[in-house]
Amino acid sequence: VSPPHKENESQPFVSDMIRRELGDKVNVGLSKKIPPKHFVESRIVTTEMVLPPHANHMGNTFGGQIMSWMTNAASVVATRHCRRSDNQFIICNLLSIDDVFFRAPSTVGDRIEISASVSGVFDTSLEIEATAKATSLFGEYRDINNAFFTFVAVDTRAREKKVEVPHLDPSTMTEEKRSQFDLSRKRKLLRLERLFLRERRQNLSLSLEWVVDLEKDLFKTNVSGLIQVAKNPAMDWETKFVDASGICRKVETCWQDGNEPGESKSQNARVLACRCTGHFNVPPEKMFQFLLDLSKRKLYDVTCQNMESRVPLDESNDFVWLQIKDPNSRNDTDFSLMRSWRKLDIQGAPCYLIANRSIIHPKIPVNKGVIRGEALPSGFIIEGGPQEGTTSLVYTLQLCDKVAQVVFSNVGKENIGVFMFRKIAKALERESS
Question: What is the mean pLDDT of residues 348-374?
Fold first, then answer.
């Protein structure tokens, strides 16, 4: 996960790109096997009274007690929504609680009204929003708490087996509910990014494990991760090469975690980012098609021995295997990568992206005697240049320390963009002639 970026001039660009990726996919009414449901069918409202055992010595209700009531209500909603007519036994296990806000206190004698309803539906999990309001005997209701609960549906006869969750009928959803569902997918993406960051800190690994249920979210983190590092001037970039009139205009590097070489205890704890910017006299569409063709990778990448698509997924995502040369070792180094490519319109102008990041997938196993490299989101961002028919290209690499040494031992940090961009220009020139 790339480091957070500060407010800067490129922030609207990043936000627009991510919003375009996330904003138009609401997971409702898509299942043909399970009839969709109306969210009102599972919505509940419960009332609890705050008694002395529920409060502290000041008479204020324990926050844990309110969360317990909210969890019970959310669990009932999740179970009701997942109830099916095919007699399959399903239970809903609580997976996480997010965005918990204690807005105001409640005291002994208050009535607590808790309302809970479905706020997001995914393939095998669902999100429940629960809110708590408090009132005295003759007082007005006041908001005191709200939170989002994520449950995963499993078969009671095989606890490890996840089952499909009924989607919501889109014809019964109001605009407000649709907007709420859009936000649920973004909250899920944020949960994933926090999970990836925590796992990276604990396990010192850059690879994500492939989970079918999360494939859409994994694709999005791949694309958004590339955008964040490639278009983020807040990172502490160190300029290695500048040529205002050449094909490769600038090469920059950055140690993302701020550690100096030699301070880390693990080869994967530090990540070296390299950003190369260039200009080409070809249209963006032609550049995109050229870079998307894996068979041409060896024409411009001096480290590449082989690169091939191993697991096709859909029209804009696949898993690829990359093998690179290590001049200082007898062992080969390879990568298992998730590749995502997109064509977007930014203020009416086309923008193309090809993003790759390390993934753990059973169909791309680690072979004996081969060093498995790891990379955070890396790849190409292709935009129109200052003149019509030209291309501005940004190539970004994010590699673990050890693999970065292998890559740069072939060409050097300051030369990687120069060599690659010159070879790209020559290859495109040969294709045109």
Answer: 89
pLDDT, greater one: 12 or 312: 312
| CB-based contacts of 194, cutoff 8 Å, min separation 6 | none
CB 193 within 8 A of CB 221: yes
What are the Cα distances from residue 174, in Å, to 45, 82, 147, 178, 363? 20, 21, 21, 6, 43
Of the candidates 14, 15, 25, the one whose C-alpha atom is nearest the C-alpha of residue 381 is 14
CB 164 within 8 Å of CB 171: no
Question: Is there a contact between 353 and 381 (Cβ–Cβ < 8 Å)?
Answer: yes
Instruction: Kindly report, residue by residue over 14-38, the tens digit of the pLDDT.
Output: 334 333 333 333 344 444 467 778 7
Instruction: Evaluate if residue 268 carries a pLDDT over 70.
Output: no
Four-point Cα dihedral 196, 199, 205, 207, nearest 10 = -40
Which CB contacts under 8 angstroms, 24+ apart, belong to 316-320? 316/340, 316/341, 316/342, 317/215, 317/219, 317/341, 319/210, 319/359, 319/361, 319/363, 319/364, 320/294, 320/356
**C-alpha distances out from residue 276 to 62, 327, 359, Å:** 55, 23, 24
247, 280 in Cβ contact below 8 A?
yes
Read off the DSSP letter of residue 386. S
Query: In this structure, which amino acid lies at residue 355?
Result: A
pLDDT computed for residue 271 by the predictor? 81
- Whole-angstrom distance, CA of residue 251 vs CA of residue 405: 17
Summarised one tens digit per residue, pLDDT across range 309-352 is 999 999 999 999 999 877 677 778 899 999 999 998 777 788 99
Closest listed residue to residue 355, CA positions, set 338, 372, 368: 338
DSSP string covering 107-145: BTT-EEEEEEEEEEE-SSEEEEEEEEEEE-SSS--EEEE
Of 274, 284, 424, nearest in space to 349 by CA: 284
Closest C-alpha to 341, from 295, 390, 285: 285
On whether the CB atoms of residues 413 and 399 are closer than 8 A, the answer is no
**Is pLDDT at 380 greater than 60 in this prediction?**
yes
